[in-house]
Amino acid sequence: MELAYYSDYAVRLVNTEEPTRGKDTLTSVEAVRDLFGINASAARRATDADVTRFRSVRARLRAVFEAADTGDETLAVDLLNSLLLEFPVSPQISGHDHRDEDGRPLWHMHLADHPSNATAGYAAIAAMGLAFHLTEYGVDRLGLCQAPPCRNAYLDTSTNRSRRYCSDRCATRANVAAYRARKRLEAERSENSGLVAESAQRSTASGER
């Protein structure tokens, strides 16, 4: 079962909104359909009503990441469990039209489209994928970008649990900001040291008179 792949569904949905920047790209049924990627059959089931429903699921998924980001493992798990209970998955065996060199189907487990609506199907896949990542790698592998004002979600798959940013772009921006801050601090310290030395020289000169 491609659960590692499914975990990206949650990140993809959460990052359609940037609350601190007031940005939201989930404003139309076309935007909803784009989230399904190559799953065209599921995307076609989306309607205008799914926009509001997707936003509701998005808020709940972000809450999972926020709880994990603050170190509240119990809350993160409880929030995710509520999604799993509300949107159960329907596993089925699938070949996806892929065959081996002998022409036999490459059977594997697959999460089927939810029978009720597009939102329920997407939520089930996203919650299951995120649950797999959490139980396989740990709650601390669910993160929110540490490069203000960005707070995009990400899944840390680094070997040393060192990821802090949602993208290389944010990592570069944060490193540049930190470098400039260090340079400003060094300049201020140098200036203050110069003023202290100058003051000391004046005091010495005054005492010698």
UniProtKB/TrEMBL annotation:
SUPFAM superfamilies in the record: Jann2411-like
Record region (Disordered): 186-209
Gene3D superfamilies xref list: Jann2411-like domain
Coiled-coil annotated residue ranges, if any: none
Classification via InterPro entries: ABATE, ABATE_dom_sf, Znf_CGNR
Biased composition regions of type Polar residues, renumbered to the chain: 200-209
Protein known as: Zf-CGNR multi-domain protein
